[in-house]
Write a structure and sequence with these properties.
mainly beta, globular, two-stranded parallel sheet, binds 2-acetamido-2-deoxy-beta-D-glucopyranose
């Protein structure tokens, strides 16, 4: 557990008040600790957080930072977080418990092989982009975990099959992108009959767009 002075890590911060694509580069972390983000239960201290900007930051772009975990000390005011092109290997709703305002989370092109839909995620999260990760399976999902989630992008994951009620814990889901997944490769009944059913087996009433393009499924088969 050594402290290491890394080259100044610049994070791009978009302040909501500065409308229209005005970007401001603000140094958020000066000191970080090697290995501290990949080892749970480490003797983590929050020192790097002390240099975080005060409240008011609503959008943070953390692309291409070789992050293995989301920093635990992000501003609580965040509404949009883009952590695409990093090295995250799991996503748990617990990781997001410090971000109660979060609405949009993009983790495109990480190495996420497991997600945990435990309760406690941000109530208002409406868009979750997990495209181009390494999800081969999705966990069972019960109750209303992300009650506001409208858009779930799972395109480009090696998903081969869907269990019944895979999406039942997203009662507001409108747009589900399973494009370019491995659905239909191997297993004969890749999509269980009730894959797109709610908790009681009813169809997901809110679903409007289901993209199964570029999968191994027979044309026209959708399981809906
Ligand atoms: C954890 O931090 C405390 C307080 O700084 C320190 O006394 C202790 O040695 C640390 N433990 C490890 C395993 O680094
Ligand atoms: C991150 O890297 C990807 C791939 O090299 C690139 O397309 C993207 O523009 C980069 N993003 C930033 C913010 O540098
Ligand atoms: C689904 O995701 C793929 C890959 O990101 C994208 O090309 C496609 O347009 C998306 N489909 C819809 C309906 O948005």
């Amino acid at each position: 557990m050594r402290w290491t002075l890394l080259p100044l890590l610049l994070l791009t911060v978009l302040r909501r008040s500065q409308a229209k694509r005005v970007q401001e580069r603000v140094p958020l972390f000066r000191l970080t600790r090697q290995g501290s983000w990949e080892s749970d239960g480490s003797n983590a201290t929050d020192s790097p957080c002390e240099v975080l900007p005060a409240t008011g930051v609503t959008t943070l772009i953390l692309e291409n930072r070789s992050l293995e975990r989301l920093p635990s000390c992000l501003p609580r005011s965040l509404r949009r977080l883009d952590g695409s092109h990093n090295l995250l290997s799991t996503l748990s709703m617990r990781d997001l418990r410090h971000l109660p305002q979060l609405q949009v989370l993009r983790l495109h092109r990480n190495r996420i092989a497991a997600v945990h839909w435990s309760p406690g995620g941000p109530e208002g999260l409406h868009t979750l982009d997990l495209s181009d990760n390494q999800l081969a399976t999705l966990p069972p999902c019960a109750g209303s975990v992300l009650s506001s989630l409208r858009v779930l992008v799972l395109a480009g994951n090696p998903l081969q099959a869907l269990q019944p009620r895979t999406f039942a814990c997203f009662p507001a889901l409108q747009h589900l992108n399973l494009s370019a997944t491995a659905l239909g490769r191997g297993a004969q009944n890749a999509i269980a009959d009730a894959a797109f059913a709610g908790a009681e087996g009813e169809p997901l009433a809110t679903l409007e767009v289901l993209d199964l393009s570029g999968t191994y499924l027979e044309r026209g088969e959708s399981g809906c």
